[in-house]
User: What shape does this take?
Amino acid sequence: MTYIYIAGSLRHTPKEWWKIYEKIGNLCKELGFSVHVPHTDTVKDVGTTVNSIHDPNLDMKVRADVYKRNYKAISEAKLIIAEVTNPSTGTGVEIGFALKLNKPIICLAQRNVDLTSMVLGPAHIGSIDMIRYKDEEDALQQLKVLLETKFKNLVKF
Assistant: This one.
């Protein structure tokens, strides 16, 4: 089964926003993919809770374990999907790892958001597939089409 890593801002984004990462993961699962969504999977893997992610006093060993687990997940993934509407140092690092590892990357962002050149630049030269969306439904529909067309070799119909 093809493995997808889902990236997105956690520490500086309200928990309500995290639902879109789960919806992206669920869409991928419906298409036959195995997914890694850090706020649900990594926290279990490293023995912490989703509530601890926002804690500025999060133990440094746990932070190191999170880094190692997510780097391993990115390394093993066949595709990275990153929701980049909300700026995030961590998501930027994850995208950087994926670019360095020559992983295919899909980034999604709301249409009205000004994005960094470190996302738009690689999108412009074809290193990232960029989806700009109106709302969650539009995001998921565009993502489904892209997965079923450009990435159809990864989709298990």
